[in-house]
Amino acid sequence: MPDPLNPGPPQPDNPLHDELLELALEAARRSGAFLRDGRPADLGVAATKTSPIDVVTEMDIASEKLITGFIAEHRPDDGFLGEEGASVAGSSGVRWVIDPVDGTVNYLYGLPSWAVSIAAEKDGETVVGVVAAPMRGETYQAVLGRGAFNNGERVHHRPAPPLSQALVGTGFGYLADRRAAQADVVRALIPQVRDIRRSGSAAIDLCDVACGRLDAYYERGLNPWDLAAGVLIAREAGALTGGRPGEVASHELTVAASPAVFEELQPLLDELGAWHD
What we know:
Helix content is 35%, strand content 25%. By secondary structure, the chain is of the alpha+beta class. Its EC number is 3.1.3.25.
């Protein structure tokens, strides 16, 4: 398996990857349009998960069913891992990792920063990532070894400033103790960077690193569906991604940044304890 911090040289075309990308783009387009155009005026919470503010709406559930149903029609032997419960082992070696609404609280409140995130893994390695942000009118995509794109235009990370001039995105968990610990990290970090941004969508933040709209992004507590597509897109745009020093992006910690910013920020976050509650 390639070094997770270095995707290596460009890869040749792969018919399977082409097929997976086409399906991911169409599934994300359909789901994004459904969510954008079908949002009820009286949208309410269908369920809560880890805490009363970790919510699921009826649209999250319907979006996941739309995505998995569409993909299964074309590839019935594939596996699925979805935020709202899709869990199928599959037998093809391909697994789809799906966040049907990344930024559900934003969506619930009518804020525009939400996205549909779809990644495809082959034998455990993410090979395709698509993030559709309908309220931005943007779709980000990447195939392993082929670069990253926004609406068909190649994107690249921002030229790295000194850490003191870096604009850094982050997010906060749903549990009170974790949020308090994350606030302590931000309190220590903010005097050392240009400023902090918090969009409420990990997938969008990772794509903003890819597009040069953020110099860096970090967060503790992300799940596979939160990060799978966005991490690939950021890496294919030339950013570095990882977790704690020497580790891959994970639930413990996810960091993505322009390479020079990454080299400064990752050890600082480790020192500040961004990886624990």
